[in-house]
Specification:
This protein is α+β, with helices and mostly antiparallel strands and 191 residues long. Helix content is 30%, strand content 24%. The chain is built from 5 helices and 7 strands, in the order αααβαββββββα. Helix 4 packs across helix 5.
Amino acid sequence: MTDDDDLRARLRRADPAADLPTLDTSRLLESTMTATTTTPRRTIPLLTLAAALVLIAALGSWWVLRPADEAGAPTAAPTVTDLTAPGIAAKCVEPSAGQLREAADFAFAGTVTGIDGTTVTLRVTKVYRGAGADQVRVAQAGDVSETMLGSGRFEIGRDYLVAASQGSVLICGYSGEAASPGLEELYLSAF
């Protein structure tokens, strides 16, 4: 007897079902082949779906807002100053160079490059007083500022002279269109 035959004999002796009748497998095979089963549908948890959407949104935002690569040269972010345009608070006195010099902590010449809702963006062309900036954003109430010289409102492509004190645009003849009579002379006298 070989080792395999000896092993088979041992397994037959140890088989607890050796005394049972043999199973009719033809019915088992037929029932297996004709039975219909449905597999449970897998659902993606809501949290996983939300995480995937956030990841897609973040990558899309980066793609849209990424800095332009010009031949691998690093681009410096422009310096931006934010100002507010106040409403009319009191009656105005005639503007003077001395008062402009005392009141203004920031004064510049700039061209309007964009208007987005209540925010006007100006490209700075000359700084008369204060820290240098490439851009200035002026938040104004409504679309008209009656306190500025000239047309009374910012218009894209036009040049302006703007003075500010503590982040608020000076009104009453100290800010307006650069072509307004006497405004440029006032700035040259003050600064």
